[in-house]
């Protein structure tokens, strides 16, 4: 099969080549991939450290080529969206049936391929905050793939949404269009009455966002794009100063819990219907993967990059 292979000598560390077809386990479906979406963490962290010839890729959408031998999952021919720790940047992918969701017929699978990491991370982070109706939710780093989904889902869940971005003048209209009630540059300006935070930046912004939490509030640490360390001033974590029982929760999408397939199918349906904007900022054939990867590395894209396999 054809695949994007890690090659340190190639532009962006990737080249189109061939790899052995995957051999599915009994609980895995074999999926013929038609599109994949790139994530910032893949191209900045995984590609540089991967073995030459490795086939990476978290997100992929396509059609079931061969149903799982154990009878789980959808039948052959079903359009699906999938997630996994690797293998998405190839024509064929063996994927656990718990990690794929059925897609409505006729949906644009390139757009749907943005769902797994970005959409599911946003959805599950918001689930961790608890009920959203009437609550004040802060999303930091809101112009990225996860952030855009988080803003929309929080608003649709009934929250008052505060979004932060490095350039509110440039991105404020976009974020308000997605559902943000307020768009700020600094999380500290959100005030001291935030009920929940989805933090996609880390470092100093995480610390500032934590300070906005009301008593009983939760911050879910999803992303680490800032690249700096988190240092809490002495006394910030004291529980006797009025705002107690505040928590910071780490996050890993594939860390267990309920199977992701149901969430992936629900999100795919919302994207297909137009209820969610996937935020595709770049799209092209996988022969141009290096261009997309470099744009992500240089933070020139505010949204998702989609590769169509052709």
From TrEMBL:
Domain Enoyl reductase (ER), residue spans: 9-307
SUPFAM superfamilies: GroES-like (SSF50129), NAD(P)-binding Rossmann-fold domains (SSF51735)
Keywords from the UniProt entry: NADP, Oxidoreductase
A Pfam family that the UniProt record links to this protein: ADH_zinc_N_2
Top-level taxon: Bacteria
SMART domains assigned to the protein according to its UniProt record, in alphabetical order: PKS_ER
A molecular-function term among this protein's GO annotations: NADPH binding
Region (Disordered): 1-21
Keyword Oxidoreductase attached: yes
Protein name: Alcohol dehydrogenase
Species this chain originates from: Streptomyces spectabilis
């Amino acid at each position: 099969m054809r695949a994007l292979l890690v090659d340190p000598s190639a532009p962006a560390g990737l080249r189109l080549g061939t790899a052995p077809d995957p051999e599915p386990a009994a609980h895995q479906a074999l999926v013929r991939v038609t599109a994949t979406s790139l994530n910032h963490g893949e191209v900045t962290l995984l590609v540089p450290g991967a073995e030459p010839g490795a086939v990476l890729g978290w997100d992929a959408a396509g059609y079931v080529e061969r149903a799982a031998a154990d009878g789980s999952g959808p039948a052959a021919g079903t359009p699906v969206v999938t997630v996994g720790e690797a293998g998405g940047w190839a024509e064929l992918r063996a994927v656990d049936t718990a990690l794929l969701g059925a897609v409505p017929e006729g949906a644009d699978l390139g757009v749907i391929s943005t769902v797994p990491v970005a959409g599911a991370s946003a959805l599950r982070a918001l689930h961790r905050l608890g009920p959203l109706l009437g609550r004040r939710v802060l999303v930091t780093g809101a112009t990225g793939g996860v952030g855009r989904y988080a803003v929309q889902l929080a608003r649709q869940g009934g929250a008052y949404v505060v979004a932060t971005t490095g350039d509110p003048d440039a991105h404020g209209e976009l974020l308000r269009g997605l559902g943000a009630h307020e768009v700020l540059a600094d999380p500290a300006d959100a005030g001291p009455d935030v009920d929940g935070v989805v933090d996609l930046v880390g470092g100093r912004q995480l610390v500032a966002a934590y300070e906005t939490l009301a008593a009983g509030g939760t911050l879910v640490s999803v992303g680490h794009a800032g690249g700096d360390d988190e240092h809490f001033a002495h006394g910030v974590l004291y529980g006797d100063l009025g705002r107690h029982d505040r928590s910071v929760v780490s996050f890993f999408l594939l860390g267990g819990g309920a199977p992701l397939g149901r969430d992936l199918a629900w999100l795919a349906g919302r994207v297909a219907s137009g209820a969610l904007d996937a935020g595709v900022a770049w799209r092209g054939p996988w022969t141009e993967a290096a261009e997309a990867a470099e744009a992500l590395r240089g933070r020139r894209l505010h949204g998702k990059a989609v590769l169509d396999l052709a």
